[in-house]
Specification:
780 residues, two-stranded antiparallel sheet
Length: 780
Amino acid sequence: MASAELQGKYQKLAQEYSKLRAQNQVLKKGVVDEQANSAALKEQLKMKDQSLRKLQQEMDSLTFRNLQLAKRVELLQDELALSEPRGKKNKKSGESSSQLSQEQKSVFDEDLQKKIEENERLHIQFFEADEQHKHVEAELRSRLATLETEAAQHQAVVDGLTRKYMETIEKLQNDKAKLEVKSQTLEKEAKECRLRTEECQLQLKNLHEDLSGRLEESLSIINEKVPFNDTKYSQYNALNVPLHNRRHQLKMRDIAGQALAFVQDLVTALLNFHTYTEQRIQIFPVDSAIDTISPLNQKFSQYLHENASYVRPLEEGMLHLFESITEDTVTVLETTVKLKTFSEHLTSYICFLRKILPYQLKSLEEECESSLCTSALRARNLELSQDMKKMTAVFEKLQTYIALLALPSTEPDGLLRTNYSSVLTNVGAALHGFHDVMKDISKHYSQKATIEHELPTATQKLVTTNDCILSSVVALTNGAGKIASFFSNNLDYFIASLSYGPKAASGFISPLSAECMLQYKKKAATYMKSLRKPLLESVPYEEALANRRILLSSTESREGLAQQVQQSLEKISKLEQEKEHWMLEAQLAKIKLEKENQRIADKLKSTSSGQLVGLAQENAAVSNAAGQDEATAKAVSEPIQSTSLIGTLTRSSDSEVPDVESREDLIKNHYMARIVELTSQLQLADSKSVHFYAECRALSKRLALAEKSKEALTEEMKLASQNISRLQDELTTTKRSYEDQLSMMSDHLCSMNETLSKQREEIDTLKMSSKGNSKKNKSR
C-alpha cells in the first residue's frame, strides 16, 4: 500500500511538472508574440513619424507661400493706394483706364480670396494631422507601457513559478521521507492485520458453525413450539406492546406543558382583545352613554360579548390533551384522542370569527363614513379590515391542518403516515403566518390609535380603551411568535417521534388497536409491579474488597472466629449445667428452709412464752443464712474485714458470737464469691489466649501470602529479564534493518537529487532565455 501511495505521489508530481512545462511554453509563446507586436508597433510609429515630417515640410512650404502671397497683397494694396489719387484727378479724362483698373482689382480680389481659402484649408489639415499624430503617439506610448508591464508581470510569474517549483520540490522531498517512514509503519501494520485477519477468519468460521447450529436448533424449536407468529401480520403486530421509552414520554409531556402555557397566554390575549373591542364599539364613533349606537354595532357588540364561550374551550381542550399525556402511555398521533376535542373547539372558535368578520368590516366602514374620520385614519381602517380577513384565513388554515392531525386517532384512513411530516411543516408555516398577520395588525392599530388620539374629540375613555386593545394585540403578537418559534424548534422532534410504535411495523393500524395496546400495556405494567420485589441492600464492590483485605489480615479470621464460637458454646453449655445444678441446690435449700420454719413453729407451740425470745433469735439466724450477704449486712452495723490466703472475710464487731449455722453460711458465701471471681479471671485468660491464637494464625496467613507474593514477584522478575533480553535482540535486528533501509533511502535520495539538479538546470536555462528575451524587448 505504501509503494502504491508513493507511485501515486510520483505520478501526481510528474503531472504537475508537465503542467508547469506546458505553462512555461505558453508563457514563452506569449512573450514572443508580445515582442512581435511591440516591433510592429515601433515600425508603425516610425511610419507615422515620417508622415509627420512630410506634413511639417508641407506646412513649412505653405507658410512660405503664404508669406509670399501676403507680401504680394501688400504690394497690390500699395499700388491701389497710389492709383486712387491719380484716378480722382483724371476722372473725366480716364474713364477707360478706371474700367481697366476695376477689372484688375476684381481679378486680384478673386485670386486673394482663393489663396485665403486654400490657406485656411491647409491650416485645418495641419491641425488635424497634428492632433492625429499626438493621439497615435499617446496610444502607442500607453500600449508600450502596458506591454512593458505585461512583460514584467510575465517575468514575475516565471519567477513565482520557479520559486513555487523549488518549494514543491522541497515539500516533495519531505513528503517522500515521511511517506517512507509511513510505508514502513504501514508494512508492519499490514503484517499485524494479516495475522489478525487469519485469527478473525478462524473465529468467523467457528462462529458461523456455532450460529448455524443454533439457527437450526432455534428453527426446529420455533417450528415445533411456536403455533402463531404475531409479528408477521401488521394487524396483529399493532396489538403488541412497544418498548417503553420513558425519555420520549417525559419529553412529550414537557412539550405539551409548554404548549399549554402558550395557549393559555394566547387565550387571555384573545379574551382581552374581543372584550376591549366590544368596549371600543360602545365608545367610538358614537358614545352609547350620550347617544344610541347603530344597530350594526349593537349586533356586533352582542356577538363579541359571547367570545368567552368560544375562546375558553381552547384552553380546556389543551389542558385535557396535556393531562392525557402521562409517563405510562404511548404518545403518537393514533393515541392522542384528546387532539380531536381541541380541534373541535378550534373549529367552533373559527365559526365565531367568521360570524363576527362581516360585522367588524362594516363597523370599520361606518367609522370611515363618519365626519370625524380623516384620510389617514380611513387608510388605517382599510388596512385593518384587510388584516382581519387575513387573520380569519390564517386561523382557518391552522384549523384545517390540526383537524388533519386529529384524523389518525379517529379515522385511520383519513391521513397517510407519509403525509404526517408535510402536515406538521404546514402547521409551522401557518403559525409563522399568524405571527406575521398579528405584527401587521399591531403596527396598523398603533398608527390608528396615534391618529385617533390627535383628534380634538378624543376622550380619555377612548384613549385608555385603545391602549388596552393595543396591549392585547401586542400580547397576541408575542404569544403567536412564541408558539411559532416553539413549534419550529420542536418540528424535527415531532417528525422523528412519528416512528415510535410497535416493533418491526410501520405503526398503529387503527385507533381501536392503539386502545387495545394501551390496555395490554397497563396489564403488563401491573404484572411487572406484582413481580417486582425490593432488592436487599448490597455492600459496594470497593467496600467489599476492603473488608476482604481486613478479613484476611485482621485477627477476626473465619477459623479463629469459628473456634471462638465453639469455645463460647462449650462455656455456655457448662454454665447452663452449673445453672441447673445451682437451681437444684436452691430448691433443696428452700425445702430445708420450709422444714426448719415448720420445726420452729412446732417448737413455739410446745414451749412457753419465756423461751420465745431465744427462738426468735434462732429464726433470725436461719433467715440470715438464707439471705446470705444482705442479711449479714443488715444484722452487722460496723463490719470488720480480715484477709488471708483464702480471700477476704467480713465479720461483725459485735461481741455476740454467731452460731454454727450462720458461720457455715458465711464461709460458703465467701467461697462462692471467690469461685465466681476465679471463674471470671479464667474466662478473661481464655479470651486473651484465643485472641492471641487468632492473631498468631492471622500473622501466619499473612506470612504465607507474603511468601506467595514473593514467589510471584520472582517469577515476574524472571519473565521481565527474559523480555528485556528478547527486546534487546529485536532492537539489534531492527537496527540492522533500519541501517539497510537508510542505505537504500540514501541511494534513492541521491537519484532524486540528480533529477532535481537536472530540473534546476532546466529552470536556469529557462530563466536565462526569459531574461534574454526581456533584454531584447527592452533594447527594442
